[in-house]
Specification:
The protein has eleven helices and two strands; from the N terminus they run ααββααααααααα. By secondary structure, the chain is mostly helical. It has one domain. The chain has a two-stranded antiparallel ribbon with strand order 1-2. Strand 1 and strand 2 form a beta hairpin. Helix 3 runs antiparallel to helix 5 and helix 6 runs antiparallel to helix 9. It starts with a helix and ends with a helix.
């Protein structure tokens, strides 16, 4: 655990300095600008504007989109031999898993802080004094573990960083049907069912329960925030991820060898040439 945490903190510090920091700031800042421009659009959900409704959904969205960072990191580490070197150390794969959880979770928390603080400063109807911080905390923690574990498993299944883009399209589509920017009840019943299977919808719902007044729940399924269902679904995804992610990563690591890493490097050099 300790080497994994140290590794994760070192990688996190490196990723939030210099040019990399600009890349991290880009998407949350662009999203905030869009919300500021559209914030006064009415949704028909009590007296809540689009801006106030979307801020907690965007928080959940960035937690979920951290899966893309997991996929990119794991696939890159697999290609350059980092995973192979981790396998050669006792407990190395477990330490690698912990390090990735720390690095990506820290990056996601940076996004969350930008959206929450920026939303409070720039968007009408977002008041941090009225936030249910207890609900915010448990939804965030469950969401982080569930989505990080899922992202690590997806990263283990992707063969190279160039193939990581194939994960982006279905994940963005999942975000689109998960009620981030508008109530999911506006979608067809079939899409509502699909959205409720995955953690993205429940992340957004839990964050809205923390940020919005109870009257805003009228736009949700069953006109309720459904905290028990949120805890149950996120808890199941968390449990499944914690149990399966180490198994999937170890299986991926067993298939790694010096020759396979060398072959991937050779193919990369040929493409570059």
């Amino acid at each position: 655990m300790r080497p994994g945490i140290r590794r994760g903190l070192v990688e996190l510090r490196q990723s939030v300095t210099g040019a990399d920091l600009v890349g991290h700031l880009l998407w949350p800042v662009v999203t905030l600008v869009a919300l500021v421009v559209l914030q006064h659009r009415e949704l028909g959900v009590g007296s809540v504007s689009l801006g106030a409704f979307a801020v907690p959904g965007v928080v959940g969205m960035f937690v979920a989109l951290g899966m893309l960072l997991d996929v990119q990191h794991v696939s890159a580490d697999r290609e350059d031999g980092t995973v192979l070197r981790a396998r050669a150390v006792p407990g190395g794969i477990r330490g690698y898993l912990v390090g990735q959880l720390v690095t990506v979770s820290g990056t996601v928390l940076l996004y969350v802080a930008i959206v929450v603080l920026g939303g409070a400063l720039l968007i009408d109807g977002v008041d941090l004094r009225s936030v249910d911080w207890a609900t915010f905390t448990w939804v965030l923690l469950l969401g982080l573990v569930a989505t990080r574990s899922l992202g690590l498993m997806l990263g283990a299944l992707v063969r190279s960083p160039r193939s990581a883009g194939y994960v982006t399209v279905p994940l963005v589509g999942l975000v689109a049907i998960s009620g981030v920017f508008a109530p999911v009840t506006a979608l067809a019943a079939g899409w509502q069912v699909v959205a409720q299977v995955f953690p993205v919808y429940w992340l957004g719902l839990g964050m809205r329960a923390a940020f919005l007044p109870d009257a805003a729940a009228v736009g949700e399924i069953g006109a309720s925030w459904r905290p028990l269902e949120t805890a149950a679904v996120l808890g199941l995804w968390t449990l499944g991820g914690v149990l399966l992610a180490p198994v999937v990563l170890r299986r991926m690591a067993r298939k790694e060898s010096g020759s396979s890493v060398a072959a991937r490097r050779e193919r990369a050099l040929q493409r570059a040439g």
